[in-house]
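Q: What changes when pyridoxal-5'-phosphate is included in the input?
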Amino acid sequence: MDKITYGRQTISQDDIDEVVKALKSASITQGEYVPAFEKALQEYTGAKYAVAVSSGTAALHTAYAALGLNKNHEIITCPNTFAATSNAALYLNAKVKFTDINIENFLIDEEKIEEKINENTKIITPIHYAGLPCSMEKIYDLAQKYNIKIVEDACHAVGSVYKGSITGSCKYSDAAVFSFHPVKHITTAEGGAVLTNNEEVYKKCLLYRSHGMEKVNFKNIPDSPTYHEMQLLGYNYRMTDIQAALGLSQIKKVESFVKRRIEIADIYYDAFKDNNKIIMQKKYNDRINSHHLFSVLFENNSLRDKVYYYLKENNIFTQIHYMPVNKHPYYQALGYDYKDTPLSYEFYRRELSLPVYPLLTNEELYYVIDKINTVLKAL
Ligand SMILES: *Cc1c(COP(=O)(O)O)cnc(C)c1O
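A: The predicted holo structure follows.
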């Protein structure tokens, strides 16, 4: 049996052919592939605008900047996420208010958001952890009530659906952010995107992606025929055409990738449904979880660790998502405290992310399930 990991990319010959084609084209960056990939992202999500950037982290930074986040502001998010969600706010010198999670669905507890809101709150960033959409209607109502923006960290949630709306449509947000890292649903090696329906946000994202510069097409161009103006302090967060060619080829297969992930999740749900040592993420009738992760909780920390090591001995490499962001030394030094969000810490001590990716075969999947059942029986 090959080494089984918690997640990995699916690359086939047609992806390779597209990348080679892009490499042989006139422009390997700022050419035709990036706009074509953006168009495909718009069509897939239904969002009016898509801006492809160099990573999911860059997408978060770009979205926050485009919404005007600055040092006078705060964002609200939960600690059960990859550090980039809040790091991108720190880049802009904003503060972070960490809200605890709901231990049944592993998502930000929408009932605890309102108490964190004050006059400096600018953005709420819900994370659709593992691929399960947050309670967006509730969060949207709060944002409307207090005039706050919403950026969905949808890095886990390509292809997930909430009340009939596909994630990335931005029906309940000002912007949504994807990552195309190899463990995510589709990959460009490194890459990300901002989706939005707001033209002003879109234009700002374009500026932040590329040094804040724009070409100005005046009739009487001052000084030089290639006149550029820098409007704001932007970055170089551009995606290359080589990456976009891979993305364009991958997005054609996104539905089959998501379908296989859900199939695998269904088999796990069925296999462990009567096992009281394993708690699985809550299911909702009004949502489709696209399962970037298959995340489970064990009864306690020592049981989780025993399962982790036993699986590792059997060539199955699981992961733990996530150490609460407010537990990282960097955040602790800034005065953030993981004890303020006890459920996120408890979650971290009991969580394990089991293998889920399109190329995982049923044989491998049942091998994983069998090993988990074996170790639990022995304990
Ligand atoms: C992957 C991920 C990111 C960052 O994406 P990169 O492309 O690795 O920069 C941000 N937030 C979450 C929740 C993620 O899973």
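Observations recorded in class: The chain has a mean pLDDT of 96.
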